[in-house]
Amino acid sequence: MSALLAHQGGWDEILLIAGPIAVIAGLLMLAKRRVDAGAETRDAEKV
């Protein structure tokens, strides 16, 4: 029974890689949105 649970077809290993990549990508998208919003605010203040 434990041999069956030890190997699950690779989906768990994929999550170990894809999970952190997804978190980092999400944080980068959030940071870009904040930078873009700040740039719009600065441009509006110049005019």
Note poorly predicted spans: none
Question: What is the subunit organization of this protein?
Answer: single chain
Number of strands: 0
Percent strand equals: under 5%
Element-by-element helix/strand order = HH
Structural shape: rod-shaped
Described by strand count, sense and barrel closure, the largest sheet is:
none
Mean pLDDT: 86
Separate helix tally: 2
| Secondary structural class | mainly alpha
Helix content: over 70%
How widely separated are the two ends? 70 Å
Q: Radius of gyration, Cα only, in angstroms?
A: 21 Å
How would you summarize this macromolecular structure in one to three sentences?
This protein is mainly α and 47 residues long. It is 87% helix and 0% strand. The longest helix is centred in the middle third of the chain and has 36 residues, at 11-46.
Protein model, in words:
With 47 residues, the chain is mainly alpha-helical.
Question: Can you give keywords for this protein?
Answer:
47 residues; mainly alpha; 2 helices
